[in-house]
Design a protein that fits this description.
The protein is α/β, with parallel strands linked by helices. The chain is built from 10 helices and 21 strands.
Amino acid sequence: MKELLLPAGNFEKMTAALRYGADAVYLAGKTFGMRSAAANFENEELFEAVKYAHSLGKKVYITVNVTPHSDEYAALEDYLRLLKEVSPDALIIADVGVFTLAKKILPDTQIHISTQAGAVSHADCNFWHNLGASRVVLARELPLTEIEMIREKTPESLELECFIHGSMCISWSGRCLLSANINGRDANRGGCSQPCRWNYSLYEIAEEKRPNLRFPIEENELGTFIMSSRDMCMIEHIPSLMRSGITSFKIEGRMKSAYYTAVCANTYRIAIDRYLKDPDNFTYDPLWLRELESVSHREYCTGFYFDQPSDNAQTVTRDGYLVEKAYLAHAVSYDEETGRATFKQKNKVVSGAKIELITPGMVGREIEALDMRDENGEAIESAPHPFMLFSIKVPFPVKEGDIIRAV
């Protein structure tokens, strides 16, 4: 089994992930998750999310991966009892205390050990497996060669999960104290304010016992980037990932858009399926990278799969995100007889404009917004209003949920 695992920051993002090829999603309730700034799911939405995913034969993993203090355990116990009723496929946990309580309250629910636990060895993984964990999310700092070694020295019944795409941070496997130190928002409890992305000025650096130690600092007109990481992108290395023994390929991004979720799921689904169909004759398609460059991201790199952090910190060379292409609308219906597709608007669409249609299993295809009409069938020059329905002629079939974006 090779699982493609996508983030779900809310219900819209979850449906986009599942529609575009995710085998499973990971999400959080309003408490005890590592992305408190995400919309996340209300209690009743957790039930709906699991029901919806299971109706498609897909899985839901709920994150409970913060490190709670003693006075929070009463609330944690209540939350875990709620999750027992929700019946997710697994809980993602980093803290030993949370693990112990979860095993007591949800003895039949699988537990995945979060990357926050920083597992970097087969001994570490086997320890968690012996306690009852079914999966370990390995630390992001591991090179591919070590992941392969861990696979060889762990039982097949233990699944291994690794991040293959998305934001990274200057920390050890996501454990960072910078945000808590600067503005009191603990990154290990879901409150990261991303101070590693801020601009800093360096006045002096010295180490008392190592006067000759040199810390390389590069500066341009925007400042220095000694702590701001690039984003990981492993789309060009699918064969290596597939042969490594990794069970689940994880994409980061619960704070990102539904468009990001759909495009990342679709692109990696296409690549993985192509490899599975014929591993010996697998060919990389440069259009896959073009798709991933259309979403919000920082400069891409391959994380630490092929580089040691001490040799290459993978920090950015320029400030800010590369802005994603505009998500214009999604399809709500298609009439085969007339060849017209009806869409619900998210951003302004102009009649005659060149746009691209994204369908599950296919990269973006360019079309024109021809013969645009409103929901009453009247010709219009544009669709300017949020959520308005409009239709256009499309030269090929369109599925419900298909996305159109700006070229």
